# Entry
Amino acid sequence: MWRYAVITLLREAARAGVLDTDMSRSALLRLLTAQYERWWNIDVKRFRSKKQFLGYAGRYARRPPIAQHRFRTITRQEIRFVTKDTRTKRTVETTYTPAEFLATLADHVPDRYRHNIRYFGLLAPRVKCQTHDAVFALLGQERLGKPRRLRWATSLQRSFGIDPLVDRDGQRMHWTRRVPPALAGPTAS
# Structure
């Protein structure tokens, strides 16, 4: 049903002339037919609420390259947003046409099969363990180990002030056993 809905929407958009592409109409329709006929593996999970879904999906979405609060105006003629000028160390308003903005933003997207270099020099992952020891020795300091990982309940209590292991009656919960999920549908006898 999902595949049918997506491909039908794209076909109708192509027929109405709303879908903007460099492909010819017949080539686009052939492409959509080929995509409709191939196998789509869709795993849609059931969620109790929109909040639960957003919490789940938010972990897999990357942060946007520019925070929404930095945009001042967005029109068909210009896009104005706040940036930090590294020379003067002040925030300034930057204005681009939509085409210039997309070109500037596209520079930050790596080409296919290319990866960004996140750290280099002293902070490169391959030399970090060697350089950190040397830096700490030069400073005459002792390198601290990794901090112990917080238990999930401690982390929630520290962040939100709520102990998740206390039930609504104020009683402390404790582990008893795992209960397997109930089988869906009629049971085979």
